[in-house]
Amino acid sequence: xxxxxxxxxxxxxxxxxxxxxxxxxxxxxxxxxxxxxxxxxxxxxxxxxxxxxxxxxxxxxxxxxxxxxxxxxxxxxxxxxxxxxxxxxxxxxxxxxxxxxxxxxxxxxxxxxxxxxxxxxxxxxxxxxxxxxxxxxxxxxxxxxxxxxxxxxxxxxxxxxxxxxxxxxxxxxxxxxxxxxxxxxxxxxxxxxxxxxxxxxxxxxxxxxxxxxxxxxxxxxxxxxxxxxxxxxxxxxxxxxxxxxxxxxxxxxxxxxxxxxxxxxxxxxxxxxxxxxxxxxxxxxxxxxxxxxxxxxxxxxxxxxxxxxxxxxxxxxxxxxxxxxxxxxxxxxxxxxxxxxxxxxxxxxxxxxxxxxxxxxxxxxxxxxxxxxxxxxxxxxxxxxxxxxxxxxxxxxxxxxxxxxxxxxxxxxxx
Length: 415
Description:
Layout: E1 2-10, E2 15-22, E3 43-49, E4 56-61, E5 67-72, E6 78-83, E7 92-100, E8 106-113, E9 121-127, E10 131-136, E11 150-169, E12 172-181, E13 189-192, E14 202-209, E15 215-224, E16 228-235, E17 239-244, E18 264-270, E19 277-284, E20 296-301, E21 309-318, E22 324-331, E23 337-344, E24 351-357, E25 361-367, E26 371-381, E27 389-396, E28 405-410, E29 412-413
């Protein structure tokens, strides 16, 4: 039995505590709107337990639920955070969400990294004790009102940082949206399990270079069924670069676009010892399919290492109602493997299935049985288990609009 305490820290300075118990091998959903003091609030959350637990958060908006996003909880606050994705251009709205779990105020500096060789912009903020603060980047001055942007966030004491980004359609504010936690350090290697292109999806890889020296970057695209393609990019110092994967020519300048309609995982490596930050965003449907394009999106930072076991806090399943969850597994190794997916239910014993993982591959596993929200444990199994990376994506179709709402998150590695 795990005893779990949730502390909700609101924008208004309230601190609301809720405790629950979770039996072994089970999972639990909590709707904060049903708790006293949270029916109409904005807040950050601290989750503490006396046993190892996995935690996800799902948000949907409007009573119809026409948009949604998902994120996995971070394991600890930090004094430094990095964000690769971000745009305030056109119909985009960009927000940084900062949680101060400390009993005292915290001073924060955000360095905004811009594209096209533009110099970074530094801004200072103060976070109240035990609070959550929202920074509207579009309103942070003319230089940030219409630009792509990455960020380096530094604090005088450990905090937590996330980013939410929305795209508004005429008559429908925040029609599309995605949200992700920041990462605590740049790295030389990043793994992205999710990725799809074609007429429905537009796939982007966002790379931030917070160093003064340019980074030479190889992106290895792992294909469904096995095999890979690689292309080299240069990311200038103190800047960000966007790769539109659907339009990539491989080899460069060849005119051939082998990634224009496919599913991929990616390994992004800095080859000149300059650490970088990497995220992946998907928007849908694409302009090639409809003039009402980009009515939803999802995003996730990459993982900086592989693992043999991963946990997903929440995965919704109701195929009859148009709610679908996919488990995305990257096998970046040169050897094939097998993954076991165990579903942890709320009222019954766990169930499981196994899937093959070709060498150098991306594998997508749809979950279609039952009507529930389950947690997942994804393990690489067998006598020669291969290290893997796992994400999950959930889609729904409110109002009959195909996948009008959707979210994605990187799973959490388990020891």
